[in-house]
Amino acid sequence: MTDPKILAARFPGDFLFGVATASFQIEGATKEDGRKPSIWDAFSNMPGRVHNRDNGDIACDHYHRLEDDLDLIKSLGVQAYRFSIAWPRIIPEGTGAVNEKGLDFYDRLVDGLKRRDIKAFATLYHWDLPLALMGDGGWTARRTAYAYQRYAKTVMARLGDRLDAVATFNEPWCSVWLSHLYGIHAPGERSMDAALHALHVTNLAHGLGVAAIREECPNLPVGIVINPMHIYAGSDSVDDQAAAERAFDFHNGVFFGPVFKGEYPENFLSALGGRMPEIEDGDMATISQPLDWWGVNYYTPMRVGHDPAEGAEFPATVSAAPVSDVKTDIGWEVFPQALGDLIRTVNARYALPDCYITENGAAYNMAVENGAVDDQPRLDYIAEHLSVTADLIAEGYPMKGYFAWSLMDNFEWAEGYKMRFGIVHVDYATQVRTIKKSGHWYRQLAAEFPKGNHKAG
Ligand code: GCO
Predict the structure, then answer these.
(1) Ligand 1 pocket check: which of 128, 171, 329, 359 to mutate, most ligand atoms within 8 Å of Cβ?
(2) Whose CA is nearest to atom 4 of ligand 1?
(3) Dist. CA 375–CA 369, nearest whole Å
């Protein structure tokens, strides 16, 4: 199954192979050329938030190594690069003055991709909210959605003509629930009320962003990147099945529903709607403008059971045991079939446009030995998930591309630099990049494209 030629033959010739990163995770240079702090700078500088108190000050030093890193991407033979734009470089205070030097950096990035014939997939928000916006309440404040709209418009006016696709948000599940309810990501809030406000404001910002993008660049494919959970009930019991349904609404329905149907899930609304901010006239129409594509980030399934505790808050679930004992170094269960089950489930529930796998990959922390990194488990992980993707295409699902997470090892949020997701190894002391075994394999695979439809010959 891992023979790249055999695997490649299962994909249409126009299937896009790419690699992905995000600004805060790789750029460093957090105080340069007018950039101001983001919520992740503040969060990572507080003790107890990020492993080892690591921060993004240097990261992969990508800001200074842009041309070399673009050469690296080119050397992997991929056709597309997914990256994110740092709002605190563009409008450092969130509102107010635009920082031309910040735009210049992404100008060079996009031009560098064009010169190398690599498609540019930009994400506008991958979690680095300008810290100044916390003065208003950050994502819990409706004003932030309008600040985001202006930011989106500013970026599009400058870069839109050379992008191949744009996503408004990356993984709102993380910037809403993980950041405002579970307290694991910046700003580290642990409040259902705050999270419910962040939820609606984020959805609204997505919709306002879509409008801003279309105003500037009517022909640019616009999408959103979601990390839907594939939820399995821990057992066949009626209670656990109902718990899984509630979990679906809470973890997925609150994003897919508004964006693709113009409504929040009913059960969610009856449980928590009273604590949401006011949904103003026109909000749901703004949020549900048709999209050209959506991105799925998938790593591992979610398994839940019913929480019997009295007064347990919606969705009232507890974690259920994993089925597979294969785990990556970050402890996530490896279960490729969940990717297939997930795509089938969300397509059955919503009318979805073309889909890109915008992230998939695995944390394995092998070191460089004799100039090489033998990360066979990552290679296997990617191959197995691509095999599931090929099955989905054969079943007729509109899967258009795959981006490996990640191009290179980087700042893994609360895990700091401990967890390595790259297909390229980064030595953080020297910034030397070493293509791992999985990266060499991925290059062989990507080299088979584009080539016309393999099956049709
Ligand atoms: C994500 C992420 C990445 C993570 C990756 C591994 O969107 O969750 O985009 O930033 O590094 O998912 O956890």
Answers:
(1) 359
(2) 412
(3) 11
- Return the residue whose CA atom lies nearest to atom 11 of ligand 1: 412
Judge if the beta carbon of residue 359 lies within 6 A of ligand 1.
Answer: yes
Candidates 216, 333, 359, 448; catalytic one: 359
- Residue among 171, 189, 333, 448 flagged as catalytic: 171
Domains of the chain, earliest start first: 4-228+292-298+328-446 (3.20.20.80)
pLDDT at 450: 83
47-80 pLDDT, tens digit each = 999 999 999 999 999 999 999 999 999 999 999 9
171 is catalytic: yes
Q: What is the pTM of this model?
A: 0.97
